[in-house]
Amino acid sequence: MSLIVQKFGGTSVSNIDRIRKVALIIKQEIDNGNMSVVVVSAMSGVTNNLVSLAKQLGAFEGDEEYDAIVSSGEQITAGLVAQSLKELGIRSRSFTAWQLPIVTDDSFGKANIKSINTYALKEYVKNGGVPVITGFQGVCDGARVTTFGRGGSDMTAVAISAALGAEICDIYTDVSGVFTADPMIVPNAKIINSIDYTDMLEMSYSGAKVLQSRAVEYAINNDVIMRVKSSFINGEGSIIGHFETKSVVGLALSDNLERISVFFDNEDHFNKIVEFFNENMIKFDISVKTDSYMTIFVNKDELHNITESLQYSGLVRKIEYLTRMNNEPQLSKITIIGHKTPELVEQVELTLQSVNIKARNISQFRTKVIVWVESCCDKIALNAIHNFCIINGND
Ligand code: ASP
Ligand code: MG
């Protein structure tokens, strides 16, 4: 008899039919003789809507009311899932974060977990019940609700798994696992059966959307084995743990990047700007850095938000929109993750040449190679590199 944490994402609980399907998946685990602790996200679309409502009244990440507003979707799902389990004759109840509690610091919008009281969960499970916990949220000193950043119910699932010493943390989603590349763009992409923590983290950082990178970091630090599975179709999914990396594992694409220059007064402001990006989980690549400015690449969809917050922060003197000013093409970044051979860079260049694409830049790191191309041909480039590295094998 094992204790398993089962987390269900937004699309898995998007309506009552889907919630009933989730209840059957949980029942299967109970019928197999296991104990289940469930963590849920808000129904799909709900959090986006809450974020938009909050912003219309000027509540942003970092504001106390932002967390109070955007955390509310999970409470609805927790109640509905518990109710659907009861419909199947399974003892169940919902738990919000403050009811346990999951105690965090007071970094609103990106809180860090300080402790989890597992007493009520253990008692409930011992008596044959299935607790259903609201993901994404905690409570800080002063009894205010906090949240863990977008995608943060993965964080709750991993932290609950660690606190309970669960056998595995199953993350149910709408894809069958972690893929070698985004299957929407690369039709040949395959499921990765087992993937090492560090490669998974690199995939998440580089743009793979399947898991929150903070949650993967927490899993590494607390030795939590994760498994990504579909709640729509049966399958083995992908296991994330300690594995040896013998070849290229996967590719991630970060597309439509624009170049901006951010001017600042001193090094202290530069450090604060970088800290600001990291704290707000804003992805950026620095291409030039001097004493008074840096040139960075950011996603065009995030450009407005980023520059608005930067200006508001008082840390920057001026921002120049280089891509727009100079009419430059948007660029995309393809990250090749895993073990690389000495010939890889040259082979990637040849592969791109064969589809008439010239890489803007290729750089090598210990566990990855980064290839920059113009966004107009990034999908062709990604498919070509994927075919070469993954499908034809490259060890
Ligand atoms: N509902 C939250 C979000 O949409 C948390 C999550 O789904 O993991 O970001
Ligand atoms: Mg998610």
Detailed description of the structure:
The chain is an alpha/beta fold. The chain is 36% helix and 27% strand. It contains 13 helices and 19 strands. It has helices at residues 16-31, 46-56, 64-70, 72-87, 119-126, 153-164, 197-205, 213-221, 267-279, 300-313, 322-325, 344-354, 378-391; strands spanning 3-8, 35-40, 92-95, 102-104, 113-116, 130-134, 137-140, 144-147, 168-173, 194-196, 226-230, 238-241, 248-263, 285-289, 293-299, 318-321, 331-338, 361-364, 368-374. The strands form three sheets. It has an eight-stranded mixed beta sheet with strand order 3-6-2-1-9-11-12-10, sandwiched between helices. Helix 1 (16-31) crosses helix 4 (72-87). The protein is globular. The two termini are 40 Å apart. Residues 9-10, 41-42, 47, 73, 135-136, 150-154 line the site of aspartic acid.
Offer a quick outline of the entry.
This protein has helices at residues 16-31, 46-56, 64-70, 72-87, 119-126, 153-164, 197-205, 213-221, 267-279, 300-313, 322-325, 344-354, 378-391, and strands at residues 3-8, 35-40, 92-95, 102-104, 113-116, 130-134, 137-140, 144-147, 168-173, 194-196, 226-230, 238-241, 248-263, 285-289, 293-299, 318-321, 331-338, 361-364, 368-374. The protein is an alpha/beta fold and 395 residues long.
